[in-house]
Design brief:
299 residues, 11 strands, elongated
């Protein structure tokens, strides 16, 4: 009988006095994907709320310049209704595009009475996304060193569930942080219409990276999205369990998008444990090494 214990296969014979130990075969991880929020990018407490206030102010000002009076309060109410639409989509592992969000806000501000002009969308988009630069998150201190090291031998990707800030704005921000260059593929839910924990968004990223799901590891902070979703897609999963970089104010607010989104999404299969758990991103390289030693990929 063969039993796997701590990455070793042990041959046990009830009639024999000896035990034979064989190291399991090591196979390299070819692709590593990362979550963005609270994994690569960190928040200071209260910044999410400040960013939303800035967004409402900026959109209100943009509309005024377009000749439409809309108070900050009206925009805030419209944004709340738009968030409700997002949450309904997220329950089904689906997502709305950035333009869908803009169109929804416009409809809610004017209660479906105003025809949406296409030329408005660009100006409103600028106002809608600018808070990510006005009140920016900060880069995980371990991120650059980890990405630089892993990119030497592995293909790297991003799998991100977006919220209000769209994928294209996050790409711009990551470029300014000088880490976008490390990634071979960046997948954002608002651009592909599906969200974690839907297995297909992981498989899509694996195809973009030209690796098999069984050859990939995903790293993220959310058990539901980043661990269960990755495992159901055939990935290995590393759970980043540290508490640094979380918006504590948003996590305590039952009405915040951060709080409400954590429990959403259809899980299309059983809950499964992470292959490795780390407390800081700087431990990711060692975690991947352990996975390479312990796992038989593709079997």
């Amino acid at each position: 009988m063969w039993v796997n214990v701590n990455c070793y296969e042990i041959s046990m014979n009830a009639r024999a006095t000896s035990v034979y130990v064989s190291r399991t075969k090591t196979k390299a991880v070819k692709g590593v994907t990362f979550d963005v929020w609270e994994t690569l990018l960190f928040e200071k407490s209260g910044e999410g709320e400040q960013r939303n206030l800035a967004r409402c102010r900026n959109v209100s000002q943009a509309l005024t310049k377009l000749g439409v009076e809309a108070s900050v309060e009206q925009v805030a109410a419209a944004l709340d209704k738009t968030v409700a639409l997002l949450l309904e989509a997220w329950k089904e592992n689906k997502d709305l595009t950035h333009v869908d969000q803009l169109r929804a806000i416009i409809r809610f501000v004017w209660k479906d009475k105003t025809k949406i002009k296409s030329e408005w969308l660009r100006k409103l988009s600028d106002a809608y996304v600018s808070p990510i630069h006005e009140i920016p998150p900060y880069l995980n201190p371990d991120a650059r060193a980890v990405l630089e090291s892993l990119s030497e031998k592995k293909k790297l990707g991003i799998i991100c569930n977006t919220g209000i800030t769209p994928g294209f704005a996050l790409k711009e921000f990551l470029s300014k942080q000088k880490i976008a260059e490390f990634f071979d593929a960046m997948i954002f839910s608002d651009e592909v219409g599906i969200r974690k924990p839907e297995p297909e968004i992981f498989r899509l990223t694996a195809r973009k990276l030209r690796v098999k799901p069984s050859e990939a590891v995903h790293i993220g902070d959310n058990i539901r999205c980043d661990v269960w979703g990755a495992k159901l897609a055939g990935f290995k999963a590393v759970h980043l369990a540290g508490i640094e970089g979380r918006d504590k104010v948003a996590e305590k607010d039952s009405k915040s998008l951060v709080k409400m989104s954590r429990s959403l999404g259809i899980l299309r299969g059983p809950k499964m444990a992470a292959d490795q758990t780390i407390n800081a991103l700087g431990q990711a390289i060692e975690a991947i090494r352990k996975i390479e030693n312990c796992a038989r990929f593709g079997e």
